[in-house]
Each structure stands twice: as C-alpha cells, then as structure tokens.
C-alpha cells in the first residue's frame, strides 16, 4: 500500500502481497541470469568450427561497440570522448592495471561475462571431439615463479641465451619455449595443476627431443633457451632470444614454439596401440604479418598428423590480440612459424615425446617436399 508522508512516497513492506511481488521479482531475475549462463554454455559446447560471436563482433566498428556499451555505462561513453595528453596517459595506466581497453568494448565484456574470453579464439579445424570447452587455455604461473627465476639468475651465466646446435651444420628449424617453466605433474610428483612448473625439468626437454628426431631425418635443428621472468614479458623476451639465434643461422626458415596446455588429462590424451600420447594443438596468431602462411602450415600439419593418428592433433586455433591474448606469438618473424601445445598438466615426458616424434616425421616430410610419410614412429623410440 502506497502513501505519502511529508511529500515522500512510502511503500508498506509489511503487506503480504507486497513481499510476494518482491520475491517474485528476485526469482525472475535469478532465472533470467541462469538462462543466459546456460545458453552461453550450450553455444560453447555446440560450436565446433568457429566463433559466431567473435565473427559478429569483429565486423562491428569500435565506435559502434562503444555506443552500445556506453548506453548502459555512462562513464564509459564519457571516457572514450575525452581527448588530449591527460586522457592518453590515464587510459594507458588504466589498461595496464585492468587489461580493459576503452577502444575495444570486448575487453570489458570479457572481464564481466563467464566464458566470453574463449570467444576471442576461433576453431579453424578440429577433431570431432573438440569444442570450445576443450580448446587450449593458458594459465598464469604460480606467484612465486618470478622469485624463483630471479634467484636462479643470480648466477653470472644464467641470464644468457644458451643454444644446442646439434650435429647438422645447416640449420632449418629453431625450437624454443616462450613459457620454458611449463612442466608435467607426474614428472614433478605433484597433483595440484597450479604447481605444474619447474625451472629445470620442464617443456624444454621436449624441445630437445624434437630437435634430435629432426636431425635423425636429415633436418638441421637448433634449440635455444634463456631464463627470464613472467613479469618482464615472456613473448618480448623470447623474441629477443630467437632474433639473436637467427642472426647466427641465416638458413633457418621454420620456427617452433613448444608449450604445455593447462587442460586436464581427459582433454589432452589419446591412446594408440595401447600407448597413451599427449595430444597436440596448433595456435595461430591473427595479428601476425604472416598469418595466412602460418595458418596454412598449421592446417597441413593438423591434417597429416591426424591421417597417421586420428585425433592426435586436437585443433588449429586462431587467436586475436586482446583479452590477455598476445595474438602474434612472434609469428611475424617467419611465414613458417608454429606454436604447438603438447599435452596438458597431467601428461608425462614419455607421452609428450611419442607425439613429438609424430610431429617431427610430418614436418620432415613437408620440408623434404614430397617424401611420403608411410610409417608410424618406431615403438622403441616412441617413449619407453
């Protein structure tokens, strides 16, 4: 029952009907939010070939998206209309602290809506069991990682680039690890996925195994590594490392950045002939100047690997810059660049090495231009 008291409109909350209406409104709001969340999950699970949402938003201009978001958030609209040096400085500081770019509303939505960040990734091609709930995801390292790295770098030679040139003089492939600390839980005797990192027993050992396999097939490969902190910018640091090696070996044309995914075992493992293999995935940066060439290479690798071992390659994923995605991944340095996710936190070196041997055979076939890959990796070599 409404009444007026000294010019103010009051509402009697003691009446049962009034309380019932408020309860109904709250329940309706809860149902609405649940429905929207369920709809997002269904769309993620059913999308196998690409991101419809990403495609839609990519065709909208920043001005249009800004207008839409600005209708609900007045401060947003006010902010993007501000000009001058003060605005540039404040905007830059805000973006560094929050990863929200006022010129791209999708970065704001990615912070507020669950699963929205996944739609900055596009599934180009994928195995039949792969959807947006199982594509590779990147997890941040543990908070104390930088402290461990800085302590390791206290030794005079630890902060220098080290390379393993192998035995073949002419180099065609460089193999490196931007996130060199990524490791596997079984190898560390740990169970917490947030602790799958180590400064010595890590993904760099898989890269060395790949180089050895390529050299067995007549492909000169060099591995390179250097310790640097997460906060110093991993891709910036790995780019410097790669450039220093490219100056030394001008014959290199293929670049492979090996990573370990953060997904669990059920998403990252496939069994062939009774032996588990760490599944692979190829990530292509859309911000690269060689995007089309690198995408073609990833597609060819995915296709040939799955012809030998169906489903071993999970997918080719295209990532745009933004929402925490680098979007370039140093792939502008060569039209033959690859970022390969090898297994997940629950895999082992043996499982990763089995898969990396398949990758080596397929890559060697492509480099040799015409040598048909007719056999699987020898069982004695493929992870004992």
TrEMBL record:
<dbReference type="Pfam" id="PF07454">
    <property type="entry name" value="SpoIIP"/>
</dbReference>
<protein>
    <submittedName>
        <fullName>Stage II sporulation protein P</fullName>
    </submittedName>
</protein>
<dbReference type="InterPro" id="IPR010897">
    <property type="entry name" value="Spore_II_P"/>
</dbReference>
């Amino acid at each position: 029952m409404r009444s007026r008291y000294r010019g103010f409109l009051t509402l009697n909350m003691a009446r049962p009907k009034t309380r019932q209406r408020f309860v109904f409104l709250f329940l309706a709001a809860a149902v609405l939010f649940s429905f929207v969340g369920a709809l997002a999950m269904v769309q993620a699970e059913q999308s196998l070939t690409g991101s419809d949402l990403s495609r839609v938003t990519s065709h909208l201009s920043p001005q249009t998206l800004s207008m839409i978001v600005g209708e609900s958030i007045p401060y947003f609209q006010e902010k993007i209309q501000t000009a001058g040096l003060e605005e540039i400085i404040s905007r830059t500081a805000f973006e560094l602290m929050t990863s929200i770019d006022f010129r791209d509303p999708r970065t704001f939505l990615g912070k507020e809506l669950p699963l929205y960040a996944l739609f900055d990734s596009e599934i180009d091609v994928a195995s039949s069991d792969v959807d947006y709930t199982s594509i590779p995801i990147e997890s941040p390292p543990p908070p104390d990682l930088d402290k461990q790295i800085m302590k390791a770098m206290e030794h005079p030679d630890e902060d220098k680039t080290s390379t393993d040139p192998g035995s073949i003089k002419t180099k065609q492939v460089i193999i490196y690890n931007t996130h060199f600390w990524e490791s596997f839980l079984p190898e560390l005797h740990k169970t917490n996925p947030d602790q799958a990192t180590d400064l010595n027993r890590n993904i760099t050992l898989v890269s060395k195994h790949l180089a050895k396999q390529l050299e067995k097939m007549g492909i000169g490969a060099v591995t390179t590594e250097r310790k640097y902190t997460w906060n110093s910018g991993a891709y910036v640091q790995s780019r410097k490392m790669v450039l220093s090696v490219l100056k030394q070996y001008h014959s290199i044309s293929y670049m492979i950045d090996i990573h370990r995914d953060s997904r669990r075992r059920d998403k990252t493992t496939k069994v062939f002939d009774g032996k588990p293999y760490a599944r692979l995935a190829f990530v292509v940066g859309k911000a690269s100047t060689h995007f089309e060439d690198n995408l073609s290479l990833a597609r060819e690798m995915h296709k040939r690997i799955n012809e030998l071992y169906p489903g071993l390659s999970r997918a080719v994923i295209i990532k745009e810059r933004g929402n925490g995605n680098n979007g370039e991944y140093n792939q502008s340095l060569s039209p033959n660049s690859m970022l390969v996710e090898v297994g997940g936190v629950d895999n082992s070196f043996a499982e990763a090495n089995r898969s990396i041997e398949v990758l080596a055979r397929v890559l060697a076939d492509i480099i040799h231009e015409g040598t048909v890959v007719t056999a699987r990796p020898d069982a004695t070599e493929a992870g004992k």
